[in-house]
Amino acid sequence: MYRFPQNDGRRIRLASCAGQTAQFDKRASLSLLSLSLLLIFVMIGGVMIWVSQGAAHAQTIPLAGAAQAKISGALQDELAAAAGPVDILVILREQPDAAALAAAATVENNGGPEARRVAKLAQVYTGLTRTAQRSQAELRAWLDAQGIAYHPFYLVNMIMVQGDLALADTLAARPDVARLAANPRIALPQPPADPAPPVRPAAGDPAAPMVPYGLDYTRAPQVWAQGYRGQGIVVAGQDTGVQWDHPALRSRYRGWEGGTVDHTYDWFNAWAAQGYFDVCYPADVPCDDYGHGTHTVGTMVGADASVIYGMAPDATWIACRNMRFGLGTLATYIGCFEFFLAPYPQDGDPFSDGQPDLAPHIINNSWGCPPDEGCDTGSLRQVVETVRAAGQLVVASAGNYGPACSSVRDPIAIYDASFTVGAHAANGIIAGFSSVGPVTRDGSNRLKPDLAAPGVGVLSTYVNSDTNTLSGTSMAAPHVAGAAALLWSAVPDLVGDPGLTEQVLIKSATPVIDSYCTGSTKPVSPNPVYGYGRLDVAAALELAQRPWRVAVEVTDLAGQPVVGATVVWQDIETGYTLDALTPADGIVRFMPVFDGRYTLRVRAGAKEVSVPGIDLTESSRRGDARGTAFQVRYLAQPQNAPELPLRYFFPWLPVS
Description:
Elements: E1 11-15, E2 21-25, H1 26-51, H2 63-69, H3 73-81, E3 86-92, H4 98-103, H5 113-146, E4 150-153, E5 158-163, H6 165-172, E6 177-181, E7 186-187, E8 200-201, E9 210-211, H7 213-217, H8 220-224, E10 234-239, E11 256-257, E12 260-261, E13 267-269, H9 270-273, H10 292-301, E14 316-321, E15 323-324, E16 327-328, H11 330-341, E17 362-365, H12 377-389, E18 393-397, E19 419-424, E20 451-454, E21 458-462, E22 466-470, H13 473-490, H14 498-508, H15 537-544, E23 548-556, E24 566-571, E25 577-581, E26 587-593, E27 596-604, E28 607-616, E29 621-626, E30 630-638, H16 646-649
Parallel strand pairs: 10-14, 10-17, 13-14, 17-18, 18-19, 19-20
Antiparallel strand pairs: 1-2, 3-5, 3-6, 4-5, 7-16, 8-9, 11-12, 15-16, 21-22, 23-26, 23-30, 24-25, 24-27, 27-28, 29-30
């Protein structure tokens, strides 16, 4: 059973003080209460029998206690308060390693970055769905036998059911179940709108289309002038939906083809797919009941005859509806990520109908999922890491809880695998509402946001074919998603490589020194307010078009190649690391690498050789270091320079 029954009109909807909702059937409430009391008496009796068995079992935890330990606190609270069934996310023990699956992907020797990206997506999709189908089979069969409706997922190996405390205890007692999580309705926080600065011609040309200040501030028109407008790149937004036929959005919608439209693989309504009532009808036609999603997509790709609203106006877009009236759930967020990994029809089976070759390149996420409302932090971390391993860049808004320190507090903004964006105003000053790091929610003390982008008084597309001015980190994130689309359009080597793309964006950002929330009075950059600085997509393109190639050779002291040595090339400023094992010829090659200062470390067995402070600026760099067991030679060359072998720079190398 893949669907929950639709609301039959007999249920009453109650709103709690946390913005969550519960549903119950009045006629069933008394019988449920009686059943709950009976279960309590049975459980008490079971515990008394266990105690009477004597001290030999004194260290054994009763099954009910062990099962309860698997149920999240938020779900226990929800089950205790509810007068009827609630959503229960059943997360299984077996969870595949997405990074290992992606690493196993292969392409033909002449396959370019796009072919490698699709191969990774396909490999991850196949591995995840096969694991979920196999490991869920026994639990699904049991649910079918009990007549319990359910919705299976594969991106996280889990199943969503609706039930009460008795069902939760039964599921938690299963050995194949890792934990049970809540699935509350989560409100979308949004600060009040601010007046928008006036639009003005791009790059000061009176004949050019008008642009909102954010595009001008980030220098997107300078990138367009070089011929890069996002062509060939697909961006995705999971949000409140999109008015697909908005005059400034329709031509860039992937489902629109010369006067006809097909939404099959370009739109998904996660609310409808999971059986919830939704005002968007029919479910397979895009809509937006809130305006927020239409606004964020416009900042990525929107354009009409007079105004360019989007950073990448020639990119195409697809979308998924994860919120209704600004409310989302953990399950709808995961459902949208699942659709983006391998798009499938609205009424299709995500396990068999997914098309990884239609997956978007970049995913914008202008929402947050608060743990204090029951959202399962671990599951969303796994989701983001999985799609990132498959080659998709995940951009996230930092949140609107500023200016308090450590107010970057909600998934997915807190994750290392997300590229997190704070909001600044037209004058470049950080917005008072913009969430600030460092991340303490998970104990990591991680630096967030990664950078800042325009997010105060942002003019973009809106529902009813209109425009609107909104403020929030929600408005800043799509500036960065659109900037990434420009980079991937201009520099194909970056396609499908989120880590390298993030390095280009942060290394090219305009630094802003600040001491707030750093624990010091000395202003520094990067910092927990602006991250690495303000987005500058023109500088990012310039950096990306100036790559380096690095070769590192490891030999023993007699000059023979050392096979299997670990070579680590690390950016001193950002901590970004490239690593590889030496092959048969003892030479590791890294490409592309970008301007900066690096440390080279080589380990072979218990021995290590380190070369710190390698500056990559304008001309080639070479050097060598000798340890007690092996020696290292490195050569870094601008990629646009003629490629010369190591022997040219190290003529004393033995002939191989």
